[in-house]
Every structure is written in C-alpha cells, then in structure tokens.
Specification:
Layout (H helix, E strand, L loop, with lengths): L22 E8 L10 H9 L3 E5 L2 E7 L5 H15 L4 E6 L1
Antiparallel strand pairs: 1-3, 1-4, 2-3
C-alpha cells in the first residue's frame, strides 16, 4: 500500500482560539420582561431573527445566530421595533459577542 505524507493542515497552536463556525451570540436587554406564548415578544424575536438557540432570563434575551448578515445597528433597530410593539419599553442594551 502506498504511503502519502501529509503536507497541508491547519497547524493549530496550543492556547489559541479559532473561529470554526460563523455564529454570533447576542444579548438584548429590554426595559421590561418579554412576553411568552403565542403572539408574545419571544415568538416575534424567534420569527424575526431565526436563532439556533434562544434563552430568555427576566429582561434579557440571549440568542445564538448565524453571523453572516448580522450587525449591531440592524439588530438594535429590529429588536427595538419588536419590543416597542409588544411592551412600552425599548431595548436598553444590545451586546454582540
């Protein structure tokens, strides 16, 4: 059987972070607790952003999204519109990681 020497690779280094997927985590802090259930704020967020994972904790909504076309200005505008339509509050902060 022929032997092949590997000459290409990623050359991973120890203690180095590599991005292996195009995903982003966003934390939206609303001024009021988001509503759940059919027609609620959380359903509207899921329909708008199509997150892979979404978690709501009191006034925070944490989402893991495809990072291809996400930017802070667009996210803030879209989240503000959803939250303003369902509560009297606007998002206080938007953090992307």
């Amino acid at each position: 059987m022929a032997e092949v020497t590997r000459v290409n690779g990623t050359g991973h280094a120890d203690a180095t972070l590599y991005e292996t997927a195009n995903v982003e985590t966003w934390i939206i802090t609303a001024g009021a607790s988001p509503t759940a259930g059919i027609g609620g704020t959380l359903e509207a967020m899921a329909q708008e952003f199509n997150p892979m994972i979404m978690e709501a904790d009191d006034t925070k909504i944490i989402m893991v999204l495809d990072g291809h076309n996400q930017d802070a200005a667009s996210m803030a505008r879209r989240a503000s519109a959803i939250i303003a339509a369902s509560t009297a509050a606007k998002p206080a902060t938007l953090v992307g990681m």
